[in-house]
Amino acid sequence: MGLREPKFRLPGSDIAGIVESAGPQTTRFGHGDEVIAYVQSGGFSELTAVPEAILGRKPSNLTFEEAATVPLAGTAALQGLRFGGVRAGHRLLIVGASGGLGTFAIQIAKAWGVHVTGVCSTQNVDLVRSLGVDEVIDYKREDFTAGAPRFDVVFQLGRTASASRIRRVLKRDGVLVLNSGDGGGRWFGPFGRIIGAKFVDVIASQKIGTFEAKANAEDLEILRTLIEAGQVRPVIDRTYALSETPEAIRRVETGHVQGKLAISVQPLTHQPSDEKSVSLPDGAPPVEPRSRMLAPNDEESGP
After folding, report:
1. Looking at the domain assignment, is residue 5 inside a domain?
2. 302 alpha-carbon distance from chain centroid
3. First-to-last CA distance in the chain?
4. What is the pLDDT along the chain (303 residues), one digit of tens a residue?
5. Residue 64's CATH number
6. Which of 19, 22, 99, 91 is nearest to 58 (CA)?
7. Which of 34, 116, 187, 277 is deepest in the core (most CB within 10 A)?
């Protein structure tokens, strides 16, 4: 997001691919290694330069399409739960449980021994239940903000209720975590919702906070371990060819994607020449992407 124009002008935020070559300062990866990364911009391409500090090893039990959906959504879910102080024995409510972040957050939290309740729409109840939640609430049939305070943490990923309503079901010392990447209006995006939540924070005893996912190799390694142990699996609604990217983006904008969408990039048919016009910083291996994840507005947000 930018004030006058998009902050990142080239689409494609996450990648899964093979290292084509490595800079002289690179120590962890080399030619032929299978990797994943959250690159923020420029992922919809055959080659992209990635700093080694944000590269992670691709989980061995995932295809490139599956692996491409992991970096941003998985990292954001992990960091959001950590931000909220979620730990074993807690009762966690995930609003927008069927989206990209939500599907990862459910599985990570269950791996930590957390009691998880997922909120989603009617058509996504079976999916959310299949991920191992303890309870599912269909927000079209039940007001999940009603009832006695019972949750230690609420992870709000979908725009289905205001902070003032959600705090009704938070315990006295509960925490409401807002994803700063969630939308919220034409002019102010998520900021109107965040400002409103901060006002509630002033007058309420619960804690309310926002976070923004930060790319790093350490969290990708945590996710790889969980995935290879069978405790977490990506949920992919559909895979598109690179030429179908506009259609995929339109699909995301509907707000009704289950899990993630992936863009499949065909392998290069030639080796990159020395004449290729790319400036590579030291330690930034060029990666030949095989698949990429589609990131914008990935949480369930539609009615």
Report:
1. no
2. 17
3. 24
4. 445 555 556 667 788 999 998 888 888 999 999 999 998 776 777 788 889 999 999 999 999 999 999 999 999 999 999 999 999 999 999 999 999 999 999 999 999 999 999 999 999 999 999 999 999 999 999 999 998 889 999 999 977 788 888 889 999 999 999 975 544 444 334 444 554 555 455 445 788 888 889 999 999 999 999 999 999 999 998 888 888 888 988 988 887 888 898 888 865 444 443 332 222 334 455 666 665 555 433 445 433
5. 3.90.180.10
6. 19
7. 116
